[in-house]
Specification:
- The chain is of the alpha/beta class.
- It has a domain of 112 residues: Rossmann fold (3-Layer(aba) Sandwich), CATH 3.40.50.
- It is built from 9 helices and 8 strands.
- A hairpin with a 6-residue loop joins strand 5 and strand 6.
- The longest helix is centred in the last third of the chain and has 17 residues.
- The two termini are 14 Å apart.
Length: 219
């Protein structure tokens, strides 16, 4: 299957993408991984992206599109893939359509993870990270530490990252609504959108997504 995963920040796209890709035996292709791989490998596209990023500028669509095109041409993606973070806007969606059409294939589904805005803010703004080890992550409501402000794993101080503050989260949501949400309407016009609730336990959301995708495939 060829799937695009969309949803607001805090919807759990990365977590769900990993599980779904494994269940469907297709590669999980995320924008973040594409950037890191190209920059670390010193590819021409990576050098271009790094130059923009170092200057504090957004990476142009053509660079992101080029990275995605190269990754989708790899052998493990020939029979399908799950895109996470790409396309990010309608221009990228149109470019993706053109790429796939050129290969004689098309998307099977666009999975839209739906989460109320207040829940997104609660999920992200409630995160606390250990200063000693960023892999130690807690949540004030869902996975609180035994002692407030102290990491259960190493005793380090827990803090809220600047990009997890409520103000920053709401700005990220504004960007999502303005730039990325329109691709849902773009794909809905093609009959590709499958919307599911991303509330509840991770395993339940994965099962819901698999059921929706299999039902869409059968249809």
């Amino acid at each position: 299957m060829r799937i695009v995963l969309v949803g607001p920040p805090g919807a759990g796209k990365g977590t769900q993408a990993a599980f779904l890709a494994k269940n469907l035996s297709i590669p999980h292709i995320s924008t973040g991984d594409l950037f890191r791989a190209n920059i670390s490998q010193g590819t021409e596209l990576g050098k271009q992206a790094k130059a923009y990023m170092d200057a504090g500028n957004l990476v142009p669509d053509e660079v992101t599109i080029g990275m995605a095109k190269d990754r989708m041409s790899q052998p493990d993606a020939v029979n399908g893939f799950l895109l996470d973070g790409f396309p990010r806007n309608v221009g990228q969606a149109e470019a993706l359509d053109g790429m796939l059409k050129g290969e004689g294939v098309a998307l099977d589904a666009v999975l839209d993870l739906e989460v109320p805005e207040d829940e997104v803010v609660k999920r992200i703004a409630g995160r606390r990270v250990c200063r000693n080890n960023s892999a130690h992550v807690f949540h004030v409501a869902y996975t609180p530490p035994k002692t407030e402000g102290v990491c259960d794993e190493c005793g380090g101080e827990l803090y809220q990252r600047d990009d997890d503050s409520e103000g920053t989260v709401r700005k990220r949501l504004e960007v999502y609504h303005t730039q990325t949400e329109p691709i849902i309407d773009y794909y809905r016009a093609q009959g590709l959108v499958v919307t599911i609730s991303a509330l509840g336990k991770v395993g339940d959301v994965t099962a819901r997504a698999m059921e929706a995708l299999e039902g869409d495939k059968a249809a």
